[in-house]
Amino acid sequence: MSAIVGTKSSLTWAVHLSLVAMVVLWLFPTVGLLVSSFRTTDQISTSGWWNSLSSSEQNLTLRTDAPDTQIEKDGLFIIEGNLFGEASDADISVWGTSSRSIDDYTPGDVAELKNGTTVTVAANGDYLMQSEVPMDGRRGQRVFVTAQTPPEFTLDNYRNVLLDKNNRQGMTKAFFNTLTVTIPATVIPVLVAAFAAYALAWMDFPGRALLVAAVVGLLVVPLQLALIPLLKLHNEIGIGKGYLGAWLAHTGFGLPLAIYLLRNYMVGLPRDIIENAKVDGATDFQIFVKIILPLSFPALASFAIFQFLWTWNDLLVALVFLIDSSGETTVMTKQIVELLGTRGGNWEILATSAFVSIAVPLGVFFAMQRYLVRGLLAGSVK
Amino acid sequence: MTNLTLTNVEKTYPGNINVLNNINLDIKTGELIVFVGPSGCGKSTLLRMIAGLETITDGEFTIDGARMNEMPPAQRGVAMVFQSYALYPHMTVRDNMAFALKIAKKSQADIDAAIDKVADKLQLTEYLDRLPKALSGGQRQRVAIGRSIVRDPKVYLFDEPLSNLDAALRVATRIEIAQLKESMPQSTMVYVTHDQVEAMTLATRIVVLANKGIAQVGSPLELYETPENEFVAQFIGSPAMNLLPGKIVDTGDTTRISVTNGGGVINSSVATREDMKGAAVNVGIRPEHMVPETSENYAFESTVEISEALGEVTQLYFERQDADSSPVIAKLQGIHRNVRNKSMRMSADPSKIHLFADGKSLHYQ
Amino acid sequence: MHPAFQAILTIIIGVGGCVGYFYFSNQFLDKVVFPSRGPNAGRNITRANMVRPWLFLFPALAALSIYLAYPVVETLRLSLTERLPGNRSQFVGFANYQQMLSEAKFKEALLNNLLWLVVVPAFSTAFGLLAAQLSDRVRWGNIAKSLIFMPMAISFVGAAVIWKLVYDTRPIDQEQIGALNALYLFFGGDAPVTWMTQIPWNSFLLMAVLVWIQTGFAMVILSAALRGIPEETIEAAIVDGANPFQVFFKIKVPQIMSTIVVVWTTITIVVLKVFDIVFAMTNGQWETQVLANYMYDKLFRANDWGVGSASAMVIMLLVSPILIWNVYNARKEMQ
Ligand SMILES: Nc1ncnc2c1ncn2[C@@H]1O[C@H](COP(=O)(O)OP(=O)(O)OP(=O)(O)O)[C@@H](O)[C@H]1O
Ligand SMILES: [Mg+2]
Question: Residues with beta carbon inside 6 Å of ligand 1?
């Protein structure tokens, strides 16, 4: 196309710009969550995440060090330090000592506090607090500053969500639980479907066409229909709620697509190769293991990715078949829904937890995109 | 000793599609049998029934006297080389060759020895660790053949093994196969091809398949010199044999026939009985046996419509008698200038003139 | 036991059991039931080969019939019965359906679902087509595609969190942290809006989440279809003097119509099953209810299996035209 003479360059620009706009629009929400997960509670709740990327003017409430760190020097009791903890790149424009008037002073001014204590704050946050008598109280003096702060990010949220010993958010356990559900729920259907797909593609038996049609039909049956009957069934045969039930359910629900994808792929393998293997003396089992499986790797991989994404991202099956009243087997999606309910405002925890659960599928997605696309195409383009 | 027999073999595909009927064939040890026939006549089907890849609907197939109809391919001791080579794309050349042996649970030492020997014979040694996709077409072909040889089967089956190669390579590989066959005099081979030259040069005997059955079985020269019927006569040889309608005017050790179109009368050394006098026959003359004639003893006289000078030979296409008959063709040695639009008399040596009545050769009556 | 250990152990048992089944059942068939030796070798092999397909198919067939086929029938039965105390049930005909139809919440869910069925496939397909067309014309198209496709990997729940942040509302005197309100105020809105309670906009905002997820899918498929269009037809149109828009709408779109239909129906099926987004973002409050969440409510909150099953059957009814169409096509292809 680009080689055609006289294509207008203004149109080319329009194409580039529209695509940029679209990509930005599609990326914006996710980036928002990602950025938020690296911000502190204060930052998140006082400014939009898009402000965090540039240096921003922020109203902050900071504290001097506590009185027990005061030292006596030349007859004065002194507390010295930096409001931001250590030397920072912040640039304070105005500050105050009471929440009602946060812009009383400019940097360098001296503020009078009670008991004749004075405090002065420099633009970079260095402060000096002096008093003739020992200062008392347990906590440091509050200082309200309006500061130009450079972008600043923290890993605290992740430390809190993932490594906290008390595990308040339960995400670590949920992470492993999710993994426990996901891996067998991915591998088992791949295996079961591969055998079935081989039979449907390359073995001759009566009723084959009918079975293929049935698989296609089951492809669209909503899994909602299966909830109550299967829960009943699981309870009756003693599986109850738990991993086994969740695996079986995921296997059952994933099979139609798995069989459909794999059969379509296997049918396309060269007949001669399979017949040659037969003449070479291979049994169906050997042909399957030594010829079909290796050659079907792209299809197996693409279905495995789908199934992995579904089971990892699933909420409904986990709610119905897995998570019992003890909550021991909770998964990440459930945990996040829980957080949405109980800590709807705690964006730092919510964003971080959500990102922990999103990170793995995103990694898989970017690493294996090729197979994913191939699978999609095999599944829907006839 | 490997003797294959097909007795009244029949093949009907599901949906009542009958493709082969009443096939009787005896293949002896050490023979290289070639199946030829028009496309879709069932050559591959017959080969695949021998391999066990297709069930035999009716009749019996034996190897060395043992009934094979129900045996799966693996138990028949056959090896097959496919047109597409059917190499396992995910295995190296060595693994491709080892596959069948490993399945047969041969020891690693035996496998290595067998592969090395065959690789040496087919000059594949330096490619042993490559994947098929890193080989040229000719090399792949040799791997496919090598893979069948390592198994040391009783019977080799080839389905158009050379048709994916370019012309030069095809000739080279054909010669290799001929040499290979010579080096393994005890092995029996069945070979399907479209290529007449392959069939004529390789075959011990050729089986011509047509109309769901066998049209003729015989050595290449038998088929060429004494075809049993018009079909075989026209199928073997290129361009095809000319068939000129005519009538027997004199019988005996030599038969005298008058040709309907072109008005000649000619002798054939095919003997006929007295009662055939006046019978309608087709006179068969191969283009390469036609010669210009000046005497009164000629087959026909007709105008040359097109002349193709190929240097070595000149092909003449004579005016058609009616629109749907194919033109009579003569293939003359050397260069003949200025023959176009000329009227010529053509004849042939009596020993080269075939006679067919009702499609069957009178030679066999 | 550490959860990681438990996970590994169960994985080994589950997967190992599966492999074991296939291996040993085949061995059993070949060595014990129909040994390929002895006088009947030929016949035995033939027989074994008649049994083997079913050996390969058995686990899949069992899982499919227990987990998908049986529930359809059982749900139908449950929707016609009422649970009685003591694990008994009673046939009640269409009473559950009548009760369901009389509920305002159900009508709301049905109407919303129909709205979803129109809006989400339409916008996803349109955006997908746009993205496919645009990205095929620039050199960095693959990167663009990959980024637009990315939400596909994100769970509905994760997407709900992501979009809740976008839709977040702060009191009027604070800075807005939700992008939508920030934009709204920036463009002259007078007060921040609690978007999730704004009927009917809230439903559309939920749909936007699904459109955001599904556009990538539509784009990938449609992009492949667009690239499959014979170049000559486009060149012919250009030579005939068509402008780029005419080429797109008159030459390209008609040629990929069948793919557009496939994409549309696939997204339709996703929409019918949509549950997580509504569950996580509004839980059906403020008139955002949809069938799948309604059903979940009935089944697990109200514990009313009859009406729950009836609403599941409604979902089934809605997908069945697609089901029939797919089966019809598959059978045609197999001929
Ligand atoms: N599985 C099948 N079902 C029905 N008919 C078949 C099947 N396989 C082959 N046939 C038919 O059987 C006939 C013979 O096929 P076969 O492949 O043996 O021909 P062939 O002689 O090898 O042809 P070619 O020279 O083109 O390879 C053909 O008419 C074909 O249409
Ligand atoms: Mg053939």
Answer: B 13, 17, 19, 37, 39-45, 194
